[in-house]
Amino acid sequence: EAGTANPAVQFDTRLYGGNSFTKTGVGTMVFNTQGDSNMSGDFNVNSGTVLLNGALSNNSNLSVAAGAILGGNASYASPATIAGTISPGSAIGSISTGGSLTFSDNSTYLADIIAPDNDRIDVAGDLHIGNNVTLNLSDATVDGLNAPYILLTYSGVRDGAFIPTGVPAGWIVVQDRTLRQVTLEPINLESTEREWLSRHFTEAELEDPTKEATHWGHAADPDGDTLSNFFEFAYGSDPKVAGGAQRTVDGEPGTNNLRSTFVRLRHNLLDYQLQVSSDLDSWATASTTANTPTV
What we know:
- It is a single chain.
- The chain has 295 residues and is mainly beta.
- Helices cover 9% and strands 36% of the residues.
- It is built from four helices and 28 strands.
- The strands form five sheets. Strands 2, 4, 6, 8, 9, 11, 12, 14, 17, 19, 20, 22, 23 and 24 form a 14-stranded mixed sheet that branches.
- β27 (275-276) and β28 form a beta hairpin.
- The protein is elongated.
- The N and C termini lie far apart (52 Å).
């Protein structure tokens, strides 16, 4: 079956049978399925917007084409592929899939947050994120009392990462591989370090306690460049790429001063001190003049 809507129509009915559904046209189509629907074919949003409120317990596949939008409060039995935009609810809502969720290149997850509530996607499988996939938080209204805001969960493994946009000042999107979720949280040392770990290590590595000493622990040095993970984190570098930390020590031209150049974290999350010694035994914190752009 094919549905064409311009500008908007609403159906209060369940979806049955072995046929597929394809939405065309630039308008909005709303389905209030009033419970479970057993349609076994594909559910395709090729253009315009579909808001589905209910459950498709037997559909074969869910797809949203580039330029199209899927919203509503719904659960789907199938895997899903998003080439356009997914935005649960009509304001705040939730969508779940019965299999993996794939965000194709240049697609968007538009997540609304109106504290204390937020949009959420739950994936019963792997999460595949292509290139230039945006997590748009431009409509977020947050407060610290309700953090963290869980925007997405998955049960398998993740490849790729969202590019967050519209993140409120003082907050960070944490794409946590250990907890298998994507959250919006206040910026602090703990949330920033979890995001860094999940950016550089896999679910399998982080869940293996025997790899703490060699891979993901503070003292580990997986790239063998003598810089531990703690310092790689502090310098914002990749712990699996030897020599990636940007740091130099040299003389300042025209003076007797020593100059140290390095990258440091934003938001004063760590205290960086330069220490000096005349005998390499006793060390003292040097008096410094800072010119410190941060990342």
